Write the structure tokens for this entry.
Amino acid sequence: MDGHNATKVVLLSCGSFNPITNMHLRMFELARDHLEDTGQYRVVKGIISPVGDAYKKKGLIDSSHRLEMARLSTEDSDWITVDSWETLQPEWVETAKVVRHHYDELLAAEQNNDDVDTVKYAKKRRIAENYLQGSSHHKRRDGPQLMLLCGADVLESFGVPNLWKQDDIAEIVGRYGLVCITRSGSDPHKFIHQSDALWKHRKKIHLVHEWVTNEISATHVRRSLRRGRSVRYLLPESVVRYIQEHGLYSAESEQKNADVVLAPLQRYTGASSS
């Protein structure tokens, strides 16, 4: 399939980005190379969507800082952008709803390209719903596709009780698709094999192996910062400067939400605190 006929793909990455690291950004490059190498896809955009403060994860600093660091980190990218919609919602938004929102936006933008200024939002919405309901493939052959980009840890978190709704997993993977960056020490094939929900939609899961083992995690970065250690070359230089200028990540900030139950666990079990 030549590039002109390839399906356009937008990659969406959801997460804390607390702080964003070079590995978060590297995942987009790995995913784009893998998808385009198949000859079936042309990746046109990457979206970083930081989670809102209402997620209540331990050590999660204010979203305004996480958004700004993400923006700084993508200033020199010509295809990866940062979107604040999820971040600005007053309550935690399930990932399936975030994916749905961005897919609606993608369809609306496509429709605008086809017929500028003549299509009202209600019609766009109707078109979006027709896309989703009209066929088992959720899109026209030449329509754009949205895929959720994640690491192997997110794939494995699908198996954690009360962290995800099973219907949401089926929607994210079955309707849209998943690109999972794996690394040494994780066995996503085994995890997919052991999960009926993932096995059913296995053809919509793109596994990308990262051969250059890179164990940068935001948790390790925050630990180094608390201890006054250098984090240069783990994060974009602009993000390192921003953290220093604002004095982010301390022993105190790491205790934020320490006594609060994570939002999805609250929602799905009715718990509120430990």
Strands lie at 7-15, 41-50, 80-82, 145-151, 178-182, 205-209. Confidence is low (pLDDT under 50) at residues 116-120, 133-141.
